[in-house]
Write a structure and sequence with these properties.
Blueprint lengths: L7 E5 L4 H12 L3 E5 L3 H13 L3 E4 L7 H15 L4 E4 L15 H29 L2 E6 L14 H21 L4 E8 L12 H10 L8 H12 L10 E4 L9
Parallel strand pairs: 1-2, 1-4, 2-3, 4-5, 5-6, 6-7
The structure holds NADP nicotinamide-adenine-dinucleotide phosphate.
NADP nicotinamide-adenine-dinucleotide phosphate (NAP) binds next to helix 1.
Length: 253
């Protein structure tokens, strides 16, 4: 049910964290995976690691804010592996944390471009490829930040961009349902990656304590949720915002 045999997937933000874990899991479940991020060396190491575990992957380094790069990723999936079935559009950046009046326009733009405009550019090129294949699954990595009760200080641009992804997900799911293309947002809670850095043990303990499970996730745990959305196990799931957040959204401390 969770198998990705005979499927081709693009995973963005694959040089570290959640994307790296998802690329490995997707490949282990049989998918041929196209991986991207800006750091070439990390992507090359990932491709080698996947190959050493019996999987197949191809890397193309680039910036997901660039329309041509998104187009090239789809071309690579089609030319090297024969099509595109799954896209895990997972790139993200928090940007500098600051109250709204201290945020510069360029900082706002960078966060919106990286988290939200990149999703539009990715989907724009991925949807026709999935249509050629007769269907597919698109996944956008949103966040608990900006969703439901989880307002967080100093994260205005990030919260706006991640909430925007949920709106994009719903609109696209409504548009594409008749074409067999499912579209879902994945909302991780705090996850132990380079994005979640803590200056002190106290800071880490505070963030862990915000979660009902009193810990943050391993990237592999978020990858499992992405696998569910990617695979036929979620064949009747579209337009949803799937929380895999350790209960941070519902917890009252
Ligand atoms: N960690 C958390 O607590 C948490 C919680 C909720 C949601 N999320 C979301 O989860 C997703 C993955 O984050 P993560 O936690 O795994 O952090 P991460 O390890 O920092 O991963 C971010 C990835 O995005 C890539 N990236 C950033 N900007 C890019 C750009 N302009 N073009 C291409 N690639 C770019 C980075 O690679 P390069 O630097 O090599 O380009 C990296 O592979 C993000 O969308 C994040 O917002 C994370």
């Amino acid at each position: 049910m969770f198998s990705l045999n005979d499927k081709v997937a693009i995973v963005t933000g694959a040089s570290s964290g959640i994307g790296r874990a998802a690329a490995k899991l997707f490949a282990a479940q049989g998918a041929k995976v196209v991986v991207t991020a800006r750091r070439q060396a990390e992507l090359d190491a990932l491709v080698d690691e996947i190959a050493s575990e019996g999987g197949e992957a191809a890397a193309l380094a680039g910036d997901v804010r660039d329309a041509k790069h998104n187009e090239a990723l789809v071309d690579l999936a089609e030319n090297r592996f024969g099509g595109l079935d799954v896209a895990f559009n997972n790139v993200g950046t928090v940007g500098r944390m600051a109250p709204i009046e201290d945020l510069e326009r360029a900082e706002w733009d960078e966060v919106m471009e990286t988290n939200l405009a990149s999703a539009f550019l990715a989907a724009k090129h991925q949807v026709p490829a999935m249509r050629r294949r007769g269907g597919g699954s698109l996944i956008f990595t949103s966040s608990f930040v900006g969703y439901q009760t989880a307002g967080m200080p100093g994260m205005a641009a990030y919260a706006a961009a991640k909430a925007g992804l949920v709106g994009l997900t719903k609109a696209m799911a409504a548009d594409l349902g008749t074409q067999g293309i499912r579209v879902n947002a994945l909302l991780p809670g705090g996850t132990d990656t380079g994005m979640a850095t803590f200056e002190t043990d106290e800071q880490r303990a505070f963030v862990e304590g915000l979660h009902a499970l009193k810990r943050i996730a391993r990237p592999e745990e978020i990858a499992q949720a992405a696998l569910y959305l990617a695979s036929d196990a979620s064949s009747f799931t579209t337009g949803t915002a799937l929380l895999a957040d350790g209960g941070v959204s519902i917890n009252k401390i």
